[in-house]
What does this fold into?
Amino acid sequence: MTGSDPLSYASGESEPPLLTHTIGTTLAATAAAHPDSDALIDAAVDRSWTYAEFRRDVLALAAGLRRHGVQTGDRVSLWSPNRFEWVLTQFAAAEIGAILVVLNPSYRRHELLYALKQSGTSLVLAAESFRDSDYAQMLADVRDQADDLREVILFESDTFADMLAAPSDDELAQIAEIAAGLRADDPINIQYTSGTTGSPKGVTLTHVNIGNNGYMVGSLLEYTEADRICLPVPFYHCFGMVMGNLAAIAFGCAMVIPGPAFDPRAALSAVEKYRCTSLYGVPTMFIAELALLDSGESFDLSTLRTGIMAGSPCPEQVMRRVIDDMNMSQVSICYGMTETSPVSTQTRMDDALDLRVATVGRVGPHLEIAIADPMTGEILPRGETGEFRTRGYSVMRGYWNDPEKTADAIDPDGWMRTGDLGVMADDGYVRITGRIKDMVIRGGENIYPREIEEFLYTHPDIVDAQVIGVPDEKYGEELMAWIRLRDGADTLDADTVREFAAGHISRHKIPKYVHVVDEFPMTVTGKVRKVEMREKSIEFLGLDG
Ligand code: AMP
It folds into this structure.
């Protein structure tokens, strides 16, 4: 197919060439090319590593893992907020081909045990505790029920310190031999997707999957060893570990950890202190950073040039302010999902401003994307709304030990069904208009909440808006908007919002209910839990669910 084809299909450029080697090989090449460039900075403990030092410690930890019996293909779980040990473990496991199971730091016992058992984890590396999460205690509580689990090692323990001790020449030679025998299309990583229904699924990704995704994302941001990436996004998710860490090590950029969990002041202080050139975040993180600037605090953001906003719909107004008020003239929007390593589309730095703030960009290198009829899989004409699908190097190996769910997700031709709704314009740029399960059907009309959310953002007092469908006797569903107001704004009720919307959006798209909140129920990765919003709304509106 060609660019002039009227169907919603596009394929990416073939440059730069795909990497066909392992993550360890990429790190070795970068450490050789830029030994003295900063690799990692952890603001919380004020420590930094050059690439030479970073690779030295990665190899030491790889040897440490071997001493604790870890073999290629074994599952090693990692449970911790963002800190330097997380990053060292990520690359040490890759070096010897252990499959790293990255656990959400907000898990509790039930979710922890499920992931340990489902993945067949034999060794866990974990932080002792963080805020109200006592990882050590929770691990002790479930350990007997996880049959394959042999050992738990805490970052704070002497055992972990010993694992980082300088390895012998024999050990290093052994690791080099193991590394040389690894295959780039072997699994390297399992990430459990939160999944709104049913049990979590273990997305299984290879060196080729995630090594390349980080590389392609970084290449479109024109990363070099001069870049320093501030990473307030969680490492256990692709946003941190792939778009952040794997992009960084492909180009010799510094990975800057502003703190163990997101805090807007810590993020902006780290940008200033470590002279970061790039800043990542989900939209709510940027919203919180802008609010901090609005409150009068000031930070030197003059070193910023680029960054990524992704993870959930990126409001156009927020993008514009990030460009104007945070000095991120080359900020990019990425769209994707864990199952596709994650990025499928990205805005380019030389795109016209309108495309950069209002679309999720166009297809990434070496990938194919399509907008298809969700039922038949038929590719739709450009301009029509349908399910976004991706095919290519980025598509996961499958869900760990779950061929049935894998077959549901990836069609026989290799297309990953995302469950997201999108529209592709004539120029190949895509807008994400909602999720299949998000769609509201009111009186037979399909309504995509995203469109109404974007409209509500144009109200000067609304800083964030989320729209859901709630049950209605007459129409099947009615629209409800949950809104967050600017500090100091007078409260808004349904009538004032309706007045504001009247004449601007179709009558059936104007929310019947409006609910003002201080915050939305969110996942750590910035996804609003609409299911929870809906349940709560049904309860307090006294509707029949
Ligand atoms: P996850 O697997 O946690 O990365 O979640 C992937 C989902 O996040 C996608 O299927 C989308 O629903 C949503 N998402 C990610 N990036 C974007 C974006 N730029 N715009 C809209 N939705 C996004």
User: Anything to note?
Assistant: Residues 51-67 form the longest helix (17 residues). DSSP finds 17 helices and 26 strands in the chain. The two ends are 46 Å apart (CA to CA). Residues 315 and 454 are 6 Å apart (CA to CA).
